[in-house]
Amino acid sequence: MGTPLTGYLVVAALLFSIGLAGALVRRNAIMVLIGIELMLNAANLNFIAFWRYSPHPEALTGMMFAIFSIAVAAAEAAVGLGLVISIHRHTGTTDLDKMNRMKG
Amino acid sequence: MFYLIAALTLAGALAAMTLKHLVHAALAVTVAFGGLALFFLSLDAQFAGFAQILVYIGAVAILVVFAILLTRGSELPKDGVFSRTWFVGLPIAAGIFAVLGWAVIASSKALPSETATPAVNVHDIGVALVGRYVLPLEILALLLTAATIGAVIVALHEKERAK
Q1: Ordered DSSP codes for B75-140
Q2: How far apart are CA B34 and CA B14, in angstroms?
Q3: Given CB atoms, is A98 within the 8 Å cutoff of chain B?
Q4: What interface predicted TM-score (ipTM) does this complex get?
Q5: Tens digits of per-residue pLDDT, B102-125?
Q6: Which of B93, B23, B147 is nearest to A31 (CA)?
């Protein structure tokens, strides 16, 4: 398998695919958001793994990217769940198959 | 060790995406986030690992559980947890994994393989944050403030009903 980096990249690809499958397949809007979080986390794992095995880890590029990505993902989760709660209050459901109008 | 953490993380993610009860799914995704934090710690990225624990296990998981309970998501839906178009989504995800896996395996000879442990401590990260990366840090602070205010406004806005 070459370097240990390959294992991390395969795990991250698998995690990304699980998150994508969840985001595409689940009915509930909250579960779709969790799937998107899993995809973001898979990308973070790639950043950290590449940073660890890179020739110049003291440049901190991958580490910084992962830290900023964690912060942006937190903001995304807050806004996304706020939207889900607002939509639930407005329409009484979080089922994405029943949300087919943009105008309330 | 690597295979143990990988099995834990992937089992958590898979359980989160397949479990019927949303609260159970939220707990499973917390396990997956914890596995990722262990990955970060085992990759000598202590700061990112502890940030992952604080932000994901501490904040996002709690937020998800609150959202599930506020939207009565703990009740089982009558017509299944999967969307009507699941047979489209699964092949797309499998195809994406095939492409990603092929790319990783095909390029595994060219990947970097430095084995020396990077000598980076929290002090270096702090200096880099307020030095080279100060503009992204400020933008991120603005983004977080805007996101917090926006989330509160969106979630608290009481729509007056017509009836």
Answers
A1: SPPTT-SB-TTHHHHHHHHHHHHHHHHHHHHHTTTTS----SPP---HHHHHHHHHTTTHHHHHHH
A2: 14
A3: no
A4: 0.87
A5: 988 888 777 777 777 777 788 888
A6: B23
Residue B28: Cβ within 10 Å count: 21
> d(Cα B24, Cα B51) in Å, to the nearest integer?
24
Please identify which residue in the block is written with the tokens 């917090």.
B148
Please indicate whether, in this complex, the C-beta atoms of B152 and A15 are within 8 angstroms of each other.
Answer: no
pLDDT, tens only, A35-90? 999 999 999 999 998 888 888 777 888 888 999 999 999 999 989 888 888 888 87
- B36: which chain A residues are within 8 Å (Cβ-Cβ)? 41, 44-45
Contact B40 A94 (CB under 8 A): no
Separation in Å, CA of B130 to nearest CA in chain A: 12
